[in-house]
Specification:
This protein has about 150 residues and is mostly helical. The protein is about 70% helix and about 5% strand. The protein is built from three helices and two strands. It has a two-stranded antiparallel ribbon with strand order 1-2. Strand 1 and strand 2 form a beta hairpin. Helix 1 packs antiparallel against helix 2 and helix 1 runs parallel beside helix 3. The longest helix is centred in the last third of the chain and has 39 residues.
Length: about 150
C-alpha cells in the first residue's frame, strides 16, 4: 500500500514539475511580450498561464488528499528529488510573479500620476461654448508611443 502511495505521489509531483517548467516558460514569454509591446501574444500567454495554474491546483488538491498528514512521504528516496525540484521551481515562479506584480504596480502608479497631472482638477470648473462642463474625466487618448 505504501509503495502505491509513494508511486502515485511521485507521478503527481512529476506532472507538477512539468507544469512548472511550462509556467516558467510562459512567465518568461510574458516579460518578453511586455518589453516588445506585443499585446496579442501577452493576452494569449496570460490565458495559457491561467490554464497551467488551474491544472497545477487540481494536481495539488490530489497531492494533499493523498499525503494527508503523512509528510514523511516527501522525504522517501524516490519522492525527495522530485519534491525538491518542484519546491525550487515554485520559488522561481514566485519570484517571477513578484517581479511582474512590481512592474505592473509601478506602471499603474506612473500612469495614474501622469493622468492626474494632465487632467483638469476635479474641483476646477470648465466652460464650453454651451455652458459649464462637468469636471468628471471620462477618457483621455494619448496618441504617442513612449
Amino acid at each position: 500500500m505504501a509503495e502505491n502511495v509513494e508511486k502515485e505521489l511521485c507521478e503527481i509531483l512529476t506532472k507538477q514539475d512539468l507544469l512548472l517548467d511550462s509556467m516558467l516558460k510562459v512567465q518568461s514569454d510574458i516579460h518578453q511580450n511586455i518589453r516588445e509591446k506585443n499585446w496579442v501574444d501577452l493576452e494569449n500567454n496570460i490565458h495559457q498561464s491561467k490554464l497551467i495554474s488551474d491544472s497545477f491546483v487540481e494536481l495539488d488538491s490530489r497531492r494533499d488528499a493523498l499525503v494527508e498528514d503523512n509528510v514523511e512521504l516527501y522525504f522517501t528516496e524516490s519522492v525527495l528529488p522530485v519534491f525538491t525540484s518542484v519546491r525550487s521551481k515554485l520559488s522561481k515562479s514566485k519570484i517571477e510573479n513578484s517581479a511582474l506584480a512590481a512592474y505592473v504596480n509601478t506602471t499603474k502608479k506612473f500612469i495614474q500620476d501622469f493622468m492626474d497631472d494632465c487632467a483638469d482638477s476635479k474641483k476646477a470648473t470648465t466652460y464650453s461654448p454651451y455652458g459649464m462642463v462637468k469636471p468628471d474625466l471620462q477618457s483621455v487618448m494619448v496618441n504617442t508611443v513612449f
